[in-house]
Amino acid sequence: HECSHRKDGPFIKMNCAAIPETLLESELFGYDKGAFTDAKKDQKGKFEIADGGTLFFDEIGDMSLQTQAKLLRILQEGEFERLGSHQTRKVNVRFVAATNQNLQEKIQAGSFREDLFFRLSVIQIEIPSLSERPDDIIPLSRYYLDTFNHKYHKQIQGFSEDVMNVLLLHTWPGNVRELKNCIERSVIFCENDLITCDDIPPHYHNGKECIENDSPP
Known about the structure:
Elements: E1 11-15, H1 21-29, H2 46-49, E2 54-58, H3 65-77, E3 79-81, E4 88-90, E5 94-97, H4 103-109, H5 114-120, H6 137-151, E6 158-159, H7 161-169, H8 175-189, E7 194-195
Parallel strand pairs: 1-2, 2-5, 6-7
Antiparallel strand pairs: 3-4
Helix pairs in contact: 3-5, 6-8
């Protein structure tokens, strides 16, 4: 977004899995005053707010078929109506979506619209699982170490050699989010200059004794 011609426009992100289905439509398209009981004033939705910029949908595979149909219209026509309104509004939004689910399998199961899939898949970027790109594990771990050092006001310098071996050997079924949580937990519990095996959850040791040595990473 920041390197595109839309960099001066807004970047709006939305997690479809984190918003109840009953609220998702109003979050997307907004509503006019009086559209429902608690609609005390006009409210813009994500598409209006993102006009001229980029709208990023995470976990789009969790969206219901009903909302998918309404999303398809705005992606194709660039227009929509707020809840409780008959006025058609037009927006110019670049739409980016992500999912950790196999949308082709969801199409076969009837839980994801094929026409929406083809409308979304103009450009596809497939990110391999973390276990398929082990060279990223240590750089990501150091990045999250810096992040959580700042968050928790610590000055941890790095990881012991044994911890780095543990991180590299783990299969990371939860991918980057699992790694992030592991590093955050380690930073919280670490009271030394280096994160050691005492600071990470035991199941990352793969049932083997973690013998530390004093050499820095």
